[in-house]
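Lab meeting notes turned into a lecture example. A postdoc, R.K., suggested we walk through two folding results consecutively so the class can see how the record format repeats. The first protein's sequence and structure tokens come next.
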Amino acid sequence: MLNELYHLSVALEKAGITPRDWHKDLKPLPNATPKKPCYKILINSDCSISGIEPMKEGVAEYLRKWEPSNGNSFPGFNIQPLYRIANEDRKKRLKKWREGKETIDLVELKNWCIETQSQNWDVRTAKKLSKCLGETPDQLRQQCGDVPEDFVSVKKLFERVSAWKGDDTGFFQGLESCIWAALERGQNVSFLLPVLAHEGSSGKKPEDDRGSISVFLDVPDWEEYPVANEETIGWINIRLLQTHASIVIKADNQVDDAFGFESNESDGKLPDVKLPFIGKVKLRAMNSESPCQYRYGTIDDKSFRIGAYSRKRAKGALEWLGSEEREGATWGRADGKELIFAYPAIMPKAPIMLAACFGARKVDDSGARFENYAKDIIKSLKGLALSLKDIELRVFSLRKMDNTSAKTKVVFHRNYSAQRLEDAAKEWQQGCSNIPSVRIKAWGKEKGEIVLSSTETPFPLQIAECLNRVWKQDGTTKCEVKAAQKSDGIELLLDESTIQRIVPHLLTVALQNGIGLFLSLGNSLHRNEVFKLDGFNKHKQLMPAILGILLWKLGIGKEAYMNNPPYLVGRMLKLADELHTLYCKEVRKNSLPPQLLGNALMVAALNSPIQALAQLALRIVPYLGWARTNATESAGLSRYVLKEFGLLEGKLRDMALPTRLDDPGRAQLLLGYISSNAQTEDPTNN
């Protein structure tokens, strides 16, 4: 990861962009949500706690805490709720009180809290708080030095928390008194109850289930800026950086670090960076506790020497690249544990939605289209250099290895030219159109409205999402597998050298997991059913285009394969379905069986088209006979089906049908089966 971030820092430097430098021990607060807020605790001049309130939305995002050692921080840190309630009946009462469905019974609640088993603070809690309210603020006060008048709130906070130094119960009693007083006044019950009592699990040991709350200390009588303020945190950061710079001493005979900068302070842990969605990320974790690290004969910082300056550059570069306001431009979410990063080596003045072009879009950006993003990006990049070949695009992804630690790994890294993106975007769209017309009758936005929808061009990251989804033949899906990687779609779009390795694999996965989708889609299309294209049903618009891309990458164009036996057999089974539907409508009073004639033979056709056609020849006879004598209102349609049957039969008669189909042949047969007729594209034709 350090190599990728070094190249990014060079690009930022050339563009004159200086990421904000944060002291390595001044770390962001945990993510605050309405369900799990960060609480601001206000401390009076008499060292009593005057208020507890949830931090206003968005404030916690720019606050930081001084955390010189893991878990010991100031003025933000985590505490446990004062008491723990694990009894199921009591938890139900707590929930009703918290949600305002029942008036809180303070006498009963106090009786619960008095019980010994309800105590939630133990010796470990006291030990931790003695550091968070004693040693840690003392260290921070020493680092900050004299406090200017504008930030006198910080000085007041230092003085007031010092009263709890060595007092294990003072902070607890202050919190409890404040909460009970507010509850007796009937104030803020919904957010104070979680601080007072943790709703524990009766199946867990109390020591493993104490709960956790993020708090931030402040004073109510601030003047220019409170402690919980962006300006105050910025001032603390400047003081910490100044203090740190004054004590750094360059060693004699110092060797350069891995990137040619000074290697001073290369022996400590590398800083963490907090990224959206995946949280804390370690820039590099090499330590002597992992015996495998000895295989190169060096360990810890000596295996890859990184000085303080290089560390600052790497940390600042990743924080700049992954900042919230650049979502869609330089980064995006591939899934819950992986982020995709993408940027041009020549930084544009205005952000370009490069990550969004790969499909790393915001959740509410459902109306976005690949072709629009690609067009806008190419247009913007053309202004950065004389030729697109001179602009390098860097793409990499970070994956969190587990949910409990900051271990993160670069799982994908490629560099491409902007010229390749322009060429690949055209090829991608040509590939998506490498399919016959597929029209899907779907419900519109207005109630009762029916519209004809066509296939859509997928984003590269949607390739793995679609291919990993396993479909049943009834058109439902409940699970997914990990057969394709998220980055496979980006390689499929941009990489010219690995096409032959990736495409056959992706085609196999598409057929293994998606056959149920195609068979159910065809069966429903030929029954004139109306679709609801939401959720995973959206894949029914994307999967045909993905088959088109894969065939296009294999050099199989629709002008050729639409005259191949597999495609024609698929078309014939489609016509069999439509004739069967027509027959049931007129003769059986619209009573259709669950599976139509052609659909029932599709599984056989995917293995052996010859056997499938032989069975079709026997089973379709009565329907052909009816079609020749049909005199109802649908006579014209039945004549059309007969004519199409005749044309297909004529073409197939002179062809050598394959005994068995390979994967490209199966894809062609499926596309033939779901292809549309002009006669069936009328929304009113039910």
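The second example is placed directly after the first for contrast:
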Amino acid sequence: MANIQKYFEQFDEDIRLKRFDENQMLREKRDAIHRRLREKFEAMRRAGADIPSFETFNQGSYQMGTGIQPAEGGEYDIDVGLRFNCDQTKYSNPVALKQVVADALEGHTSIPTRMRRSCVTVYYKQNGEQAYHVDLAVYVYAHANSSRLVIAKGEHGSGLGDRKWEESSPQELCDWVENRFSNKEEEAQFLRVIRALKRWKTEKFKTDGQNAPSGIGLTVAAGQWFVPSIKRPFSGPIAFDDRTAMRAFVDRMVREFHLAGHKTDGSSLYRLEVRVPVVPHGDIFERMTSGQMSTFRDRLIQLRDQLDAVEHELDPVDACTRMLKEFGEAFPVPDKSKTGAVRGIATTTSGTSA
């Protein structure tokens, strides 16, 4: 069996994004939006508008340490929370508060701001091309004197049933992910496997992205079912085995799918239910159709089978070539002429960063 752990970790180094506190560019964009909103809201208050104060906070993959570089043609996606100091009774229509935010940010960049179902999005260009966007989720408190948050859902044209304040616990979800493993080596492998699977789904759903599971869905599933694969000998360095850990997690996901019906041609439809571990405790994949879920299951099975095939390859070149087919061109393949040398690489130590 070829040992490809070195290449798995090299792949992770190439795709991973640093957290907010480590990434100056992200901090600058977040802080610029914060300043813009404060300035605009202050001007609106001087003109007589009643705009509550607010704070920003980090959320999403950058906060959790699961952010990845976008694949070719993709763009960065940065998540920021806006927590307004009022309760939901101040805005019976949550779209109204999102509109206040969108109006304040209009003209902040050369691309129009867009209101989406769960956020207000600000787009940025780099070298003349749209390169990344910041998703601003709008929160207020559920009730007066309550610490529970609700997130604004809805956009222009949404019906009454789609415009609502929905319970949400963004900070608690980040804390849950960040605290899944107290051991730093286990946490590092947990995050590497999540990042690799996020790149895998980008590669495997290139042409039918509507069928792709969300990155947070994969993250929460991993939080529930991921089991580290690390050998700790009595002497010598710790040896990671990310392929085995990923294979076990993917297999667990496949086995958790249940039969949900049949298509008109008689083929089976499947669903995977993964409950969010914090309020509102809903199924994180609930917006995916059974057809999309069945496609997701099929591709997980293909990935599991490929990871099994990788295990049986003797040459790291052949093993990494199989990995490249699943994870894209970013997965490194050693030079064939150096295969004999790389076969001797058996372990990596616990020095890998998360």
